[in-house]
Amino acid sequence: MKALTRHLYFWVLLSIALGGLLGAVKPEWGAALKPVADGFIALVKMLISPIIFCTVVLGIAGAGDLKKVGRIGGKALLYFEVVSTLALGIGLALVHLLRPGKGFNIDPSTLDGSAVAKYAKAASEQNAADFVLHLIPKTFGDAFTGSGDLLQVLLLAVLFGFAMVQMGKVGGPVHRFIEETSHVFFAMMGAVMKLAPLGAGAAMAFTIGKYGLAALKPLAALMGSFYLACLVFVLVILGPIAALAGFNIFRFVLYLKDELLTVLGTSSSESALVPLMAKLERLGCSKSVVGLVVPSGYSFNLDGTNIYLTMAALFVAQALNIELTLQQELTILGVAMLTSKGASGVTGAGFITLAATLAVVPSIPVAGLALILGIDRFMSEARALTNFIGNGVAAIVISRWEKELDTTRMAATLQGGQTQ
Predict the structure, then answer these.
(1) How many independent structural domains does the chain possess?
(2) What SS3 class is residue 360?
(3) Which range of residues forms the domain containing residue 223?
(4) First-to-final CA distance of the chain
(5) What is the pLDDT of residue 345?
(6) 119: which of 224, 309, 350, 357 is 20 to 30 A away, CA to CA?
(7) How far apart are CA 50 and CA 345, in angstroms?
(8) What pLDDT does residue 40 have?
(9) Structure pTM?
(10) Is 394 helix (H, G, I), strand (E, B) or coil?
(11) CA atoms within 13 A on the CB side of 202
(12) Which range has the worst mean pLDDT, 38-47, 103-112, 118-127, 396-405?
């Protein structure tokens, strides 16, 4: 028992269970714990931007060759697009096969759109030009103190890293400073992650206390279909990809159990971003590849979000008895591929991107999102977990592709079940 209690995952799992129990028995107490959960996420987000900046800069500088950086980035983007397309396909296929919305027979005129008005408004403000311009922060510091958008941080880090490589030895002192600074931020994150059980437990207590277990019953079909789709994606898509890269997907998931439980409790893949990078390096992945692939994957490789977008959009259509043409479904797929880019790993962002996706099919009223608003919070766990696992697999695949993966070390680590 003592050996078990030394592991973080034990305390996270215990806290999630106790939080869920508290939310079910004393809903008002559970709902009141929202500030605790929000506080933990805020602490994590506070450190993510500087850590990502340092990690990407060091990854580019460590590569030492701009051609290599471009090659890694090109391979990563190619991999992201292929796997994201497969994720969209999985969601589309299963929602057609299982038809979770069939039989709801909802009259569109009875829908109350006020509950989703803010999401629709946020989605309507998105367009291609605004998206591109949003990548550029108003000032250098605004990327860290403003919206906290990781895409802005990535842009600055790439420019900074490229400049350091071009400077050569002259940039050495700056390189050493950033490297030492990154150690400080990682140490700070290590301290914050000790609060993961508290944050995960409070988040689960709030979710159950606020929405109640009864909210799951009417829409259990959609939730079950979505969780099944995520499981199928991990096993059928990521499983063979992992096998080709030389590792077992089940052992890899077990290796990340601490981080996965944190993601499960907080519904945010960002809450374990930094520990994921550290574990990938210990697993034998190249530091430069991890530093480039994982942060970019959090914006461009959101497999769980892609599955969610297609399944939720078609579920609403099925519930309203709206038959979509093949062209409309393909349009949804294409738009979902774009709207998912840059979607944050924090709960709620997926709902805005869903509103933006539905906007391209006028025959589906955006007010239909009210049907799934109550359980969106419950589905965000599966989104976050799938995104998290997908980005871990991507880093290993690109490391193997670049011939910068210590396969012997990886095999020994996964075989031994080492997590420290």
Answers:
(1) 1
(2) coil
(3) 2-416
(4) 18
(5) 43
(6) 224
(7) 17
(8) 86
(9) 0.78
(10) helix
(11) 15
(12) 118-127
pLDDT given at position 235: 95
How far apart are alpha carbons 299 and 303 in whole angstroms?
11
308: its two tokens: 């969610």
Contact between 245 and 400 (Cβ < 8 Å):
yes
What's the rounded Cα separation, in Å, for the pair 59 and 20?
40
pLDDT value at position 146?
63
Q: Could you give the residue ranges of the DSSP H alpha helices within 340-418?
A: 349-358, 370-401, 407-416
Q: Look-up: residue for tokens 């510091």?
A: 141
CA dihedral 154, 159, 165, 169 (to 10 degrees): -110
CB atoms within 10 A of CB 254: 13
Tokens of 86: 């497969």
Residue whose structure tokens are 């999102």 = 369
pLDDT band at 372 (very low <50, low <70, confident <90, very high): confident
CATH number of the domain enclosing 238: 1.10.3860.10
For 175, how many CA atoms within 13 A lie in the half-sphere containing its CB?
A: 19
pLDDT attached to residue 347: 47
pLDDT per residue as tens digits for the range 190-210: 888 888 888 888 888 887 887
Tokens of 323: 């038959």
Distances (CA, A) of 10 to 3, 195, 251: 10, 13, 18
Which of these, 154, 161, 150, 151, lies nearest to 64 by C-alpha position? 161
3-state secondary structure labels for all residues of 276-290: HHHHHHHHCECHHHH
Could you give the CA distance from residue 235 to residue 251 in angstroms, rounded to a whole number?
12
Helix (H, G, I), strand (E, B) or coil at 274: helix
| Rounded-to-integer distance, Cα 346 and Cα 305, Å | 11
